[in-house]
Automatic annotation (TrEMBL):
Keywords: Metal-binding, NAD, Oxidoreductase, Zinc. Its EC number is 1.2.1.46. It comes from Pigmentiphaga litoralis. Residues 183-237 form the Alanine dehydrogenase/pyridine nucleotide transhydrogenase NAD(H)-binding domain. This is Glutathione-independent formaldehyde dehydrogenase. One of its GO terms (molecular function) is formaldehyde dehydrogenase (NAD+) activity. Residues 35-146 form the Alcohol dehydrogenase-like N-terminal domain. It is an enzyme of class 1 (oxidoreductase).
Amino acid sequence: MTSNRGVAYIGQGKVEVQNIPYPKLEDPRGRRIDHGVILKVVSTNICGSDQHMVRGRTTAEEGLILGHEITGEVIEAGKDVEMLKIGDLVSVPFNVACGRCRTCKEQHTGVCLTVNPSRAGGAYGYVDMGGWVGGQAEFVMVPYADFNLLRFPDKDQAMSKIRDLTCLSDILPTGYHGAVTAGVGPGSTVYVAGAGPVGLAAAASARLLGAAVVIIGDVNPVRLEHPKRLGYETVDLSLDVSLADQITQILGEPEVDSAVDAVGFEARGHGHAGAQEEAPATVLNSLMEVTRAAGRIGIPGLYVTDDPGAADSAARKGALSVRFGLGWAKSHSFFTGQTPVMKYNRALMQAILWDRIKIAETVGVEVISLDEAPKGYAEFDSGAPKKIVIDPHGMLA
């Protein structure tokens, strides 16, 4: 096989399906790596993080092949691969990790020290993340395969649940990480900011962890209709009613035990007027307001060091007007950073296989072809309440 196609970022607001090189067992600097495998991509998802790049809100270069949420079948393996065989169906954590450095050994695979020459942490198809080619393609290469890949124990069973299992590469572990780091447990009251796929995954994770009440907030009322049907409490942040007042209407008090920021740096203000404009610190400040004293706030939502499309010069450098004094006064704990997917994905795989969580239903998985990817990006960017999954080879039909 020598042909391959992938989704390329070609300019602000534009992606295109292009012919791209068939992957080799080489790292981005051209060095042979016999610890890698080539995957036939079974499913690959469009993520909100991809949209940040496509909107021109990062320093991503044109021509970047997108895609860090990947599930695939092993079709070629380097000579140093010992634990995987041809035909295995695997989930790919979006973190590229070596398994050998200090942070990897401490399970902080989101900040691996060796896979990216410019900073800690690597990812497929993402700006400043080491140059690893993205997986919104027909074929992709994965390094350190024995360490990185999660093999599904029964291929037929996995394919029967592939719409759920495709979420293991990022959004389900990310939502779960947000809930875990926010201290969610049995009987917790939880507020999740953002009704996109990660927010919904965080809400589902909070239920899995035993939360008593899960409240989801968004400035887009349309996005709240689906979680409301699933039995979650919701707050409409486009209304001129404060978040604390809306929480009081649900809980009888204006505070929650735990909170999760599933929005990130492109957040909008609250209220009818505020929802029309970006206010990147809004979510963080609102979470400090409604989280109880000594509570915890999980922040899996993406924040960046460079945002060329930001409204002000400070935000362009990732500097936000956060009310840190409020968080300090309330003795809050904050947990940030890329999710270390491998810390959670095996347990979450079991939860899916044994029907403890139905994540595809929760996040609204919709399957499209590779050729439909540009349309999928446009729909997702418009705020469509769905999780778009690309099926490059027609294996999910």
